[in-house]
Amino acid sequence: MGQDTNREKALRFATDCASALGADLRAVLVQCDTGIRTDSVSTVMIVSRITTPLLRQVAGVTQRRKGVALPLLLDDEYLATSCDVFPLEILTLMDSCELLWGGSNPLDGLAIDHDHLRLEVEQQLKGKVLHLRQAFLAEASDKRGLQILMLDSSSGFEAIMRGLLMLAGRERTAVAAVNTREVERALGISLETFRTIQAAREQGKPPPAADIEPLFHRYLSELTELARAADRITRP
Questions:
Q1: Nearest CA-CA partner of 97 in 11, 32, 154
Q2: In what order do the strands lie in the sheet with 43-47?
Q3: pLDDT, tens digit, for every residue of 15-45?
Q4: Which residues pair with 98 in a beta bridge?
Q5: Extents of the domains making up the chain
Q6: pLDDT in tens, 93-118
Q7: Which pLDDT value is given to residue 217?
Q8: What is the chain's alpha carbon radius of gyration, rounded to the nearest angstrom?
Q9: Architecture of domain 2-109
Q10: Is the CB of residue 222 less than 8 Å from the CB of residue 193?
Q11: By CB atoms within 10 Å of each CB, which of 28, 46, 89, 208 scores lowest?
């Protein structure tokens, strides 16, 4: 029922946008698989060209519509020129969005380059590993802080797992745990601790405080190995 209600909210929002923007609006997409539980629905608006008057019109619609998060606003030029610099983000949109309003989904015509995607996946992984190391230095004596750090950070790897599966030529699903298992098989590595943290976050059951520091170091070690594996990926 909640999903139906969110879709109805999104459809009313899309109808309002169409009335306000006319031919400038190409499509409205609804994000069906964000991995985040929220009371508001997420949408993507794709327009022919973003101008100051158009931004004002969209702002007017969003201020009137309750229960819909601020849309991700994209135009044709941005989509056409961003697959090389944001391939992982574009892939995530392609996987998680479906057409709500419009004649066709503009994302369907986009192509993700293997080399661009591999580079961003590796950049994202190595950046997150560095962040976790620095965060440990700040939170080393705070077990609760380390617990929160692991739980919060684990959700940030879901898009990366999708990217790794595409690079490995494997199927992606809407279930994060299934994707993690498939990454393990595809890359020949173990992410047992990562899966433990992933399950704890999804189930809302934090791991025992006594186990936090050794768990964190195993978590960090697995993600470091995942970054190394990403560096070794070749075309399937």
A1: 32
A2: 72-75, 43-47, 25-31, 97-101
A3: 999 999 999 999 999 988 644 455 678 899 9
A4: 30
A5: 2-109, 114-232
A6: 999 999 999 999 999 989 999 999 99
A7: 96
A8: 20
A9: 2-Layer Sandwich (3.30)
A10: yes
A11: 208
